[in-house]
Amino acid sequence: MSRQLRSHQRLVDRIMQAIAAKETEVRDVLAAVTPGGGKSLLPVIAASRLIGAGLVDRVVWIVPRETLKYQAEEAFADPSWRSALGHELSVRAADNEPDPSRGLAGYITTYQAVAAAPDLHLAEFQRHRTLLVVDELHHLPALYDISPEAGEEEAAWSRALLPLFETSVVRLLMSGTLQRADGRAILWLPYRLLAHRSRLREIALDAPGWAVIGYSRRMALMERAVLPCIFGAVDGEAEWLDADETPSGPHRISGRPDTARPALFTALRTEFADHLLRRAFTACREHRHRRRRALGLAPHETAPGLGKLLVVAPNQALARRYLDCLRRFFPPEQAARQVGIAVSDVRNAHEILAAFRFLPEPSILCTVAMAYEGMDAPGVTHIAALTHIRSRPWLEQLIARATRVDPHGGAYQEQQATIFHPDDWLFREFRHQIETEQGTKAAEKRRRKQQELAFECPEETEANPFGIVPLRSNALAIRFEEVAPGPDFVAAPRAEQRDPGSAIETPSVAEHRLRQRIGQMVAAQVIEDEPLANGTPRTASDYHAYNAILRNRFGKPRAEMTLSELEAVIGWLERNRLSDYLHVLENDQHYRFSAARRGHTIPVRNRNADKLSSSPLA
Question: Rounded to whole angstroms, what are the CA distances from 328 to 138, 280, 343, 346?
Fold first, then answer.
């Protein structure tokens, strides 16, 4: 299938070609792309042009969270885009280990990893001419605008990343929003104050050396890059005990601002949440039923393109409560298979998230606000927004989880994103903003007095900012509204849709597979070799010794090997027996030290009997 670039992707391509040809002084490219608008392809375009022209040697892509590393790998590994762009570059998802690129064209890491080992990453930038890609740049506050109120973690990220900005050759900075929730400036961006309004600043679009590219939701809808949204606003009433243990309510969620906030807090913890979950579940189930009929599937048969439900909870405890509620909607044998949860204290959260993205099951995922940013799951058709957060950047990220076009979901005009949410005035204001606002202005927030409570409280850290005791709530009417794309919306030809990425093997996945294969081959040789001379069975010491032989033979542990080196190890193991190389351990002080610490004996070759024996450590 041929792949065609969107307007902002074509513009980035032209800019990078001009940089590569040294036709421009631009070295900083800012891409403000609406969530779901195809931002992840921009680093692939930039790297293919600049590395191909010899202007840079490596690309380093920094993302805000672990799961996005693997999505970034997929962008480079996508076979149809490799063909369309004519590139053969591969990058790997790296941790803070030596040589993070491992012979590839670069690596992807996280803000947290850079902050934990800034010298390691700075050394890589000093060693290679680097294209720096920073994803979701708005997480980084400008150092001059950091105050004691700023999150310490974000401040540490900015301090660690600034030397990388200064050392890189070209910078591609990407974000779905050009505003921070706290109103502060964003690291590295050029600002100017607006005349006569010192508290209002805007990004200097004409700053020397900068190219600024915008791709709004309006433009994305024109090009059919994202789906239209239908909002199901659910109103309700709530009752609670205030800080003085005085009963309050019932108050409407859609009511006055002074009561809407505690009413929402109560509703998310009581019966209202169950009602909203039921409505979202029923709507998604009916959608899946229609898709099954269209695809000719049996009632319980599953396949890609049926639709999925994403549930966003205020915190992990409520995510588990919602999980239990949703599982009650299924027969017991289906519940665990159909409804998953991805929060930080779930051991296999990454695997559950990957299954939700790529596989037909689970069809419902419960998560928290901080987990969904940037998640690429085109199968999501419905969202239950059971969260306190009302800042525009976060809500834009939230609805974008359902606005991606699903290549298996039918014709574009048959797809839409449906978001169920409490009908409070701040969410209504958000809908109005995304419908009417454009531009790059960012007002500095008025600093709250100490006794005032923020509506957008940190959900994971502040358990009860209102000091109330939730009692009960109920759901009343539901109202559906479609957010219009804007007055200049026109029909556009349908663009080619993306091929599914489930079959792509990224470098980190390939490395894991090859390392597992080597481990299996080493273990097989340990088992196949003759028993020790004293008749004792094989132990962990033999496996330790055989791994030490491989490290000696190839000069490094397999955890540090490149893909080609791992493949070479497999080829060598297919032709050689590790027991024939036990002599290399005789002078290996590193192995002797580690074996002594583990209480292992050193296996040696008994040349007379042509058998393995063991000798005690000296």
Answer: 39, 14, 20, 20
Q: Is the pTM of this model over 0.70?
A: yes
Q: What is the pLDDT of residue 121?
A: 97
The predicted structure's pLDDT at residue 574: 87
- Tell me which of 222, 257, 278 is where a domain ends: 222
Residues 42 and 113 in one domain: yes
Considering the domain architecture, whether residues 546 and 586 belong to the same structural domain is answered as: yes
Structure tokens at 483: 């957010």
Chain centre distance of CA 448: 32
In this structure, the answer to whether residues 293 and 173 fall within a common structural domain is no
> What's the CA gap between 113 and 94, in Å, rounded?
9
Mean pLDDT on 552-571: 90
Shared-domain flag, residues 259 and 402: yes
Answer yes or no: do 329 and 204 share one domain: no
What residues make up the domain containing 186? 7-222
Please say whether the beta carbons of 36 and 383 come within 8 A: no
Contact 485, 510 (CB under 8 A): no
| H or E element in which residue 365 lies | strand 364-368
Chain centre to alpha carbon of residue 424: 29
Residues 254 and 425 sit within 8 Å (Cβ to Cβ): yes
Domain count, the chain: 3
The HSE-up count of residue 468 (CA atoms within 13 Å, CB side) is 23
- Do β-strands 58-63 and 611-615 pair in parallel, antiparallel, or remain unpaired? unpaired
**CA-to-CA distance for 505 and 513, rounded, in angstroms?**
10
| pLDDT 10s digits, 18-73 | 999 999 999 999 999 988 888 999 999 999 999 999 999 999 999 988 878 988 99
Q: What is the DSSP letter of 181?
A: T
Average pLDDT over residues 290-303: 91
**C-beta neighbour count of 557 within 10 angstroms:** 12
Domain-embedded: residue 195: yes
Written as one string, the DSSP assignment of 26-95 is --EEEEEE-TTSSGGGHHHHHHHHHHHTTS-SEEEEEESSHHHHHHHHHHHH-HHHHHHHT-----EE--
| Together in a domain, 187 and 276 | no
Q: How confident is the model at residue 348 (pLDDT cuts 50, 70, 90)?
A: confident
Q: Judge whether 497 lies within some domain.
A: no
CATH number at residue 419: 3.40.50.300
Q: Is 599 left (phi over 0), alpha (psi -120 to 50) or beta?
A: left
Q: Is 117 helix (H, G, I), strand (E, B) or coil?
A: coil
Cβ atoms of 39 and 403 within 8 Å: the answer is no
Q: What is the DSSP string of 213-238?
A: EEE-HHHHHHTTSB--EEEEEEEEEE
Structure token pair of residue 421: 């949410």
Same domain, 400 and 275: yes
| Domain-embedded: residue 346 | yes
Same domain, 32 and 173: yes
Cα torsion for 517, 522, 526, 528, to the nearest 10°?
Answer: 60
Domain boundary among 222, 255, 289: 222
> Is pLDDT larger for residue 438 or for residue 184?
184
Q: What angle do CA 427, 323, 321 make, to 5 degrees?
A: 75
Rg, Å, the chain Cα set: 28
First to last CA, the chain: 65
Residue 196 forms part of a structural domain? yes
